[in-house]
Amino acid sequence: MNLEFSAEQQSLRDAARRLLADRCTPEMVRRILDGTDRYDRGLWRELAELGYLGVAIPEEFGGSGAGYLELCVIAEELGRVLAPVPVSSSTYLAAEFLKIGGSAGQQAAYLPKLASGALIGTFALAERAGEPNWQLLRARVEGDRLTGTKTVVADGDTADFAVVAARAADAPGPSLYLLDLHGAGVVRRPLTTIDPSRGYAELTIHSAPVEPLALGEVGGRVLRRVLDGAAVLMAFEQLGGAERALELACAYAKERWAFGRPIGSNQAIKHMLADMYVSVTLARSNAYFGAWALSTGADALGEAAACARISATQAFQHCARNNTQVHGGSGFTWAVDCHLYYRRSNLLALALGGLAPWEDRLIDELQRSAASQRG
Amino acid sequence: MDFDDSPADAEFRAVARSWLDANAPKELESSLRHAGFGELVLDGTDVLTASRHWQQRKAAAGWACPHWPREYGGRGLTPIEQVIWQQEEGVYGRLAAPFIVGHGMCGPTLMSHAGEEDRRRYLPPLASGEEIWCQLFSEPGAGSDLAGISTRASADAGAWVVNGQKVWTSFAHLSDFGLLLARTDPAVPKHRGLTMFFVDMHAPGVEVRPIKQANGQHGFNEVFFSDVRIPDRQRLGPVGNGWHVALTTLMNERLAIGSGMPTGFEEIFNWCCSLAQSGAKVLDDRAVRTRLATWAARRSGLKYTAARAITALSRGATPGPENSVGKLVAGSTMQEVAEFALSLAGPLGVVSDPRAAVDGGRFQSMLLRAPATRLEGGTDEILRNIIAERVLGLPPDIRLDKDIPFNRIPSRGDAG
Asked: Which value does ipTM take for this structure?
């Protein structure tokens, strides 16, 4: 029995934490939040040079081939510091779509550049309000041309290409295509979101040339598998953010005095913080379950991904919300960092679909395993 | 990350499994598996007889308290082997209910604080279930504030005379001995005036009365002491050091490692699946799915929190206060599950008669037992304090009775 990261993975964590403490300060996050840059190019370059973007990409395609556990470690550290870089879009999603669904030629063409950070990829699914329904996509491909609108595309304003879910003329369910976002027929409109430290855009696509990645039933399976993996990785980001919000709240509860004593000596505050610790603990344990399932290719990946996603979403929202509450009035000022965590927790809660689709995924998986136990 | 045993652990598991295969009381397996919450009831079998029988069979083969040293009735297992043993023993472990307090709390306290002669005299029969022990800590006036107990032990010619009342004493009515925390000096601050003893529960002046619990069962007792004489040699640790001894006892409270605390999720999910199989649309309901998924993720979180604790244990770490999370989450989850299950049953949800109730009345008995899980062995509020102070490092509560002699601490009677 071993549900812990190895010594090597722990030292990767230490190195990443040191680097990010220095290179991804709250001031830097605020530069993106307040400015016109949509991500921090310097940090992106540095992550690429350290090989962080390629840990789960095979060596033959320019990665280190270390594996998913290393990527989980890095994701948690990026989440702690609210890193304003397109790692989730490019590394957890685009690179994984190519790894899992791409042809040998597509992998050779894209993966080395994703590992080196030379290319930024993303994933475009949503088309309108409400949870995306794969079976009711409006975006269509006829011949090799895609037409449709994709909205709330993470990093859609800066990415070089997108994996787009659309309906093929002759195949049921979602198919996946590669779309050059610099190419003809693509208009991007940046979107202002609740968390301006990350870039989002709407893509209006009119008869743009696309390359098929995975079509029909295969497309659906690839989509399922990549989203499950991304949910685990995103859960680590959320976990990192949740734990940091808890740390900030605890530190403030010890240093802020009122009524002649630290506010953290009041049970109303202590118990709120204890409950935050509980949610972080459950989220961490579920994230490790997810990491194990992802790294071993276990049948339980669907269940594990859903548990990780639900638990981490709840923990980050809970901790970010109560971190502000513990900070009192100062927590509602622009100058104090509470709102950075509050914004990011609510942004990530809706990335990859909100809670409802993951609740469905979990119940479906549990029903499936209950039915198979019944025989 | 993996869930595999090391080669040595796998070998140990095989040994444990083959002994259990040959010796476990398989005729009880089904009723143990389906036993409800709270007090154990077995169809057509006396629980104490079955429990003693199984415990003695284990003792004869060295499996009674396998993590104890051999000279005290154990087998000298490592902590990780103990977890494996618990996993393998599975439902049969429920038969140890009458011995849990003795094995989990009294035994380790004797091991730390009794003399060698007493350890050899008392621990082996405690392990084998031949002698049952209880823990006499809580009082009507002192629960969460345990150091505020007022049961008095007065020195009298090389012995102690005890007067007072204890409460919530599990299995006192079956016990041969009890671990007793008493006040030996009321003129010093409360933590400093306590002393630990063990007492013969058959001694003159000890009276055990069952408590009828809120759910109608009788799992606990009140214990009254009227001029009970305890020889000084039954004192554990120095006079005035009882709080320190009590802390060793409480630290040994059985950790929910390995098995995990029940949350009620399996029960409600299986019930919903069986409803769905007979055509009900319950699992298509968004609200139902949301509640079930939230509990499923919590249960999974607890399961893998236990797995992480076992990982730490196997690397030589000491289980810490982090383990308070299990009971805190499981207790309130079970209460939510029970309430929701009743609401799913509609008007029939109120029926508790197993012959007429939905799913044999299991959710009604869960509902009525659930308040206790949030109180026993540390209330939710005490557990939150433990997490806040010992894990997160927050300042202790402000205590108005600090440094005041026990007999001068204000109480409601003084408020006039």
From this structure: 0.96
Q: What pLDDT does residue B405 have?
A: 95
| Residue B397 to residue A306, Cβ atoms within 8 A | no
**B265-378 is classed CATH 1.20.140:** yes
Which pLDDT tens digit goes with each residue over B208-218? 999 999 999 88
* Domain spanning A121-214, CATH class: mainly beta
Q: Do the strands A186-191 and A175-180 form a parallel or antiparallel pair, or are they unpaired?
A: unpaired
Structure tokens at B413: 């009677």
Q: Does position B207 have pLDDT exceeding 80, yes or no?
A: yes
Distances (CA, A) of B204 to A26, A146, B154, B200, B226: 70, 91, 17, 9, 8
Sole residue written with tokens 């009735």? B73
Instruction: Tell me which chain A residue has its CA closest to the CA of residue B80.
Output: A1
CB contact under 8 A, A366 and B270: no
- A323-335, pLDDT tens digit by residue? 999 999 999 999 9
Judged by a CB distance cut-off of 8 A, whether residue A299 touches chain B is: no
Task: Kindly indicate whether the domain formed by B7-131 is annotated with CATH number 1.10.540.10.
Answer: yes
| Domain extent listing, chain B | 7-131, 134-251, 265-378
CA distance B84 to chain A (A): 10
The secondary element (H helix, E strand) that includes residue A296 is helix A267-296
Q: Are A97 and A176 in contact (CB under 8 A)?
A: yes
Contact with chain B for residue A227, Cβ under 8 A: no
pLDDT digits over A295-333, tens only?
999 999 999 999 999 999 999 999 999 999 999 999 999
Residues of A with Cβ-Cβ distance to B310 under 8 angstroms: 1, 3
Tell me how far CA of residue A296 lies from CA of A172, A224, B302, B307, in angstroms. 30, 17, 21, 17
Rg from Cα positions in chain A: 21
Of the candidates A162, A304, A282, A299, which has an alpha carbon nearest to the alpha carbon of residue A233? A304
Q: Is A271 on the interface with B (CB under 8 A)?
A: yes
CB A24 within 8 A of CB A43: yes
Residues across chain A = 375
The first and second tokens of residue B249, run together, are: 């006892």
User: Residue holding tokens 């550049």?
Assistant: A113
- Tell me the CATH architecture of domain A220-374: Up-down Bundle (1.20)
- Does residue A12 belong to the interface with chain B, where contact is any CB pair within 8 Å? no
Distance, CA of B110 to CA of B325 (rounded, Å): 27
Q: Report the candidate in B256, B238, B250, B261 with the shortest Cα–Cα distance to residue B390.
A: B250
Q: Which CATH architecture describes the domain B134-251?
A: Beta Barrel (2.40)
